[in-house]
Structures are given as structure tokens and as C-alpha cells.
């Protein structure tokens, strides 16, 4: 059997990191639904209708939606980064692993926010939630800076301008999420509203670029 | 290392979207089982046999079966769409992401239906359940219409007739699920029965077509 | 961009079915651990040591082990079947989907068995458990008979003898699991012991065959 | 359609084992977050602030972090092994399956440790935790020794020195984790501290080797 070429080997390498990352993103995003409580007939019947019980859980739906959109956008971004990455090394695997850890943690602050957003301690819940988004934004920068610094792990024929555009764009992530964190000290509604707004803003593609034209 | 050709790149692109989607479908379909309550000896012993306790949960099994078959058929359909899709863009990733969100939500209405189908509020549970299936059917159309409109993201050599056949066939999905939603106002049994019937109907292949003959 | 050849397309097809199946097997096997209860300090402290509380849960560990090994062996078998399958069609996707449904159900009877194996209703729990293994064994035969009948979905150059050997071997699965089901009416220990024995027996490879020699 | 070459077939073989393993690692690592309890307003309000309730759970965060890093490093190592493995056989699938079982069990001792680390029974929880890490380290050696013995399943052109380097390095894993197990009899803090230390130590790459240079 012939030895694989370096190129094939590299593609297999990044392929497995992508597959593992996709799995973790996919599971984290799907587990979010488990944090929404099922109204129990024994607790609800006689007090209110199921419709009212479901409606009262609206903060859980907002949290769910914000977290789902945020993780989805992270995944799309992760996907975009790997279009330019052709190699991996141990540092990169570690940085990517820490990023994945931050992503898998999201269901926890999401559940805390759902349960506490209408209590006197809502601010603390919002701080926890926005703080974890800051961590993710920072780790995204670490992963990308490491991979793109000195073109360390990039494809040989990568588009220099696009790489720089990503670097510029990513710089704002931590600042924007830091703003939502700062806002959470003042107003929970404004803070979570901004998180939701950012998710929607980033979700709407600015350029209607087709990834690949043939 | 040689630059990849556009075709290889594109295949890697859609490949990763498919892998992520498969992961989400696979997890959502597997999580359904967690919504079936395990009869607890402390609550059951002395009151009834395990067999009776298991039998009393029959609405949970019906809900499980309907949801499993429905997600399975969605996955087969998703799989079928991607046979014709060769490119992705950001809009497409977003539309597909919203479709996946609707799919991951399914365990929630399934659990609500299981618990509430024998209460006076069964109608509300059925509305929630059928309503979420309407959303999925609509989002499937959004994904396919976007990908196939102007042959935007299709393979170069796609079969025009088959693409049009899919478009025609998909048009009925939202209408059929809207009927189950309307039925849920009148009769829970008829409404869920129709969902089950649709899942079985779509599961039985109309044409005994082999995907690929060699 | 060139149209893919039929062979490449077919490989992509079965590839996606395998990936989805792997995901479902992987999740079902990993969810099993969630069914093992964590001893709660509030309930245990003052009554017994943690060691005793953990030891008392031994039926849960036996159930876990039996189910894990059984799903693992199913996965290895599924993996072996797909070595011979090169095409898919809608019937096959449906049959494989029903097989996956049976696999994802396993955590439910496993949890019931764990909780009820030391109650007067242990027989019912064992019937449920072994009954679900019968269903899986039957569905494995359905999937394989459909794929291999008239060489319907097999690779062009498949090894006729090996295909027949699999068919012969699979015939015994339903009978063996039907025996564990019959045993569960008489003795829970013998019935679950036989399930465990079968899992270990099938896990130990009879022929020390290397899948691929190069 | 042409028969695949032995090399392609082998790659597909190990590819599927890797995909299944990645799925199991990915799910096990993501399920860890479910073991962290969400502070419930009904239990906390009026007694302490959410911040205090969250802070009091610090042992759960330490356990989470240690387990996440440990599974991550296991995954990186698994990934590294498969770079040298090109074939599979039934024994190997079984050994790898047992390793995956040990990995999926990790959320259980992690949860026990989180709940019991501040009780008089903390030692027992630490023994369970470190004992399960010993099992994983031993199984990693079994998998690698089987695959690399007589170069049984290695790629044809494998680097003899690197293979021996892995064998030497792996020998220490069981000894080191056996030390944490021994320590757990004396001091829970020292024992878990050493687990955390090992995870961090192994996570920091000693050689800044790029996997593939092109």
C-alpha cells in the first residue's frame, strides 16, 4: 500500500478535528432543549391552563433561542475558519479543545438565566450568561490568531486578504460581548436583548457570497 | 501541496454541513427516549404491577413512535435534498440551521403531548405538537426553495425533472401538517393519528427506486 | 465541474447512512450512563457509607455492562454489514431507521431492569429487556436480508461465500434472544446472564481475521 | 464499478472506527455539563444570593474541568494513535470499544465526586474517580499494544521510532494514575489535584511539533 501524500494526511488530520468539533457543537446545541422544563400536570392542573403554564415559561424560550442562534453562528464561524486551515498541531488541538469546552458550557448559564431572569438575582444570572459568551469570543480569537499567525497552519494557497478580513472582524467579538457583560450590571433586558441582537446580526450574512462557485 | 479544485472544496463544504446536520438529527432522535419516564418502584409497588404501570404510559409510546418516525423521515428527506446540492452559502447555512433548530425542539412538544394527552388540556398539547411540525415543514420548503431557486446551489449536472418533482412534492407538506394543526382543535386523537399516518405514508417509498445503480 | 461518477455518488450515499447510524449508536451507547443514579448525600449520609450505597446499585452496573456490550456488538456487526453494501434505497433507509429506533430504545428497558431487578416484578422487567433485544435481532435480519437478497444493494465485487456466511450466522440471533425472552419467564438471573453471555460470546472474535491485509 | 483497492477499503474501515470513537468522545465530553446542578430559585431565594449558591458549587466546577481536560487529552491521544493505524480487526474493535466504555463512564464518577467531595465520604468518591482513570490508562495501553505489536495494524510506512516513543510514553500512564489512586487513600485534595495536574501537563505539548508540514 502506498504511503499517503502529506496533503492527504493533512486533510485527514483537520478532517478529524472538524468532525469532533461538529459533534460537540451538534450535541451542545441539541442538549439546550433539555433545559426547558416540561409543565407537569400534577403541578399545573387546577391552578392554570397548560397554555398559561407554557406562556409563563417565556424567559426559557428567549434564553433557548439566544443560545441556539449563538451556538449556530459559532459553528458557522468555526466552519469558515477551517476553510483556511490545512494543518493541526498539539497547541491548536488544545486551543480548539478549550473553545469547545466553552461551547459545551453554554447550556448551564442558559438554564440559570431561564430560571432566574424573573427573580431579584436576575443580574447575576445575566452576568454569568454574558461572561461565558465573552470567554467564547476570546477563545475564538486565540484559535484563529494561533492558526493564522505567520500563516502557521493555513492552506498553502490561502487568500491573504480574506484571512486579514477575518482577523479584523474577530477583533470586535470580545469587545461586543464585553459590552453585553457591562450592560448586565445595569439592565438584564438590555443585556440579553443585545446578545440576541448580536446573534441575529451575525446570522444575517452581510455579503451574499456563495462559498464556492463552479 | 496543490490547491484543491473548486469541486473538491465544494464537496468538503457540503460534506461538513451534512455531517453537522446528521449529528443534530441523530442526537434529537436519540434524546426522544429520555422523555419516556421510568416507572419508579417506590411509587408503583403495592398499587399496581410493573406491567400495568408500563401499559398506562401508552400515550408516551405513541408520541415517541410518531416523533421518531417523523424525524427519521425528515432525515431521509434532508439526505435526499443534499444529493442535489453541491454548494453552500451563508443564507443557506442559516436556513438549514433554523430547520435544525425546529428539529431539535421536537422532544419538547413530544414530552408535553405524552404527559398531557389524557388531561382536559390535551388539545393545547396537540396544538403545540402539530404546530411545531408545521414549522418544520415550512422550513424544509425555505431550505429547498433557496437552494433550488435559479439552481442557486445545485450540482451542475442536476436532473431538472427530479428537482421540480421535489419542489412540487414539498409544497404539500405545510398544507398537510396545517391540517393536523386544524384537526387538533377538534379532536386530539384524529390530529395525532393523522401525524402518525403521514409519517408512515411518507416512510413507505412510493417508487421502489434504487438511489444508485451501477 | 465534472459530474460525479455513479461509484463516487454511491459511496457518498452509503457514507452518509453509516455516519448517521454511527451517530445514533454512539449517542445511545453514551446515554446509558445517565441511567445510573448518583447516590445523593442527603439520602445516604447517616444511613450507610458511600461505598455501600454504590455497591447496592450492582444491578444497575450489570444492566449497564450488558447493554453497553450488546450495543457495541451491534455496532461492530452493523459496521461489518456495510462493508458489503454499496447502495441504498428508500426501503433500506426505512429498515435501517427502524433498526436504529430499536437501538435507541435500549436505555429505557435497561433503566427499568436496573430499578426493578430486585422487586417482585423483576420478571416483567426482564421480559421487557429481552423482548427489546429480540426486536433488534429481527430487525438486523430484515436489514441484511433486504440488502443481500438478489444481491440488491451489495458491492459489485462482493464475496458470495462471506455474504452467505453472514446470512447463516444472523439466522441464529433472533432464536438465541428468543431463548433469553423465554428464560425470563422462569428465571431473571438466567435470562440476563444469558444476554450477558451472548454479548461476551459475540464480542470474542471466533476467527482472528484481520479486516484488511495489505 | 471498480472494486476498491485494499488501501481505500482500509481507510474506510479505520475511518468509521474513528468517526464512531469521535462521536462517543464528543458526547461523553458534552454530557459532563449536565452533571452540574442548576441552582433552583425555590431552594435558594431567601437563604442566599445566586452568586453564593453558584460559588458553593465550586467542587462541581473543579470536577468538571478535570474531567473535561482529561477526556480532551484522551481524545487527542486517540487521534494521535490512529495516525499510525491503518487496519482494524475484531479484537481491535473490541479493545477500542472497552476503552470507549471506560470513557463514557467518566460522567458518573465525576458527578459522584462533585456531590461527595465535601462529605466525610470524600475519600471513597476520590477512589472511584481515580480508579476509573486507571482503567482508562490501562485500556489505552491494551489498544495500542495490540495495534502496534508486530506492527499488526500499523500503516506500511510507519515511523518505527515514533511508534516506540508512544509505547514508552504510554507505559507511564497507568503508573501515574495508580499514584493518584493511592493518594486518594491519604488526601482527596492531593489526589484530585494530581489528576488536574496530569491533565494540564499532558495538555501542554512538550514538542511544538506541527503534525504535517507541507
Produce a short descriptive summary.
Chain A is mainly alpha-helical.
What does this structure look like?
- The structure is a homotetramer of 214-residue chains.
- Chain A is elongated and about 65 Å long.
- The first copy, chain A, has one domain.
- The first copy, chain A, is built from nine helices and no strands.
- The N terminus and C terminus of chain A are likely disordered.
- With 214 residues, chain A is mostly helical.
Please describe the structure with a list of short key phrases separated by commas or semicolons.
homotetramer
Distance between the termini of chain A: 34 Å
Number of strands of chain A: 0
Which class best fits the helix and strand makeup of chain A?
mainly alpha
How many discrete structural domains of chain A?
A: 1
Task: Work out the helicity level of chain A.
Answer: over 70%
Low-confidence stretches of chain A: 1-6, 207-214
Outline type of chain A: elongated
N to C succession of SSEs of chain A:
HHHHHHHHH
Helix run count of chain A: 9
Mean pLDDT of chain A: 84
Summarize the main sheet of chain A: none
What does the radius of gyration of chain A come to? 20 Å
Largest interface, with counts of residues having CB < 8 Å to the other chain, equals: A-B, 48 and 47 residues
Strand content of chain A: under 5%
Quaternary structure type: homotetramer
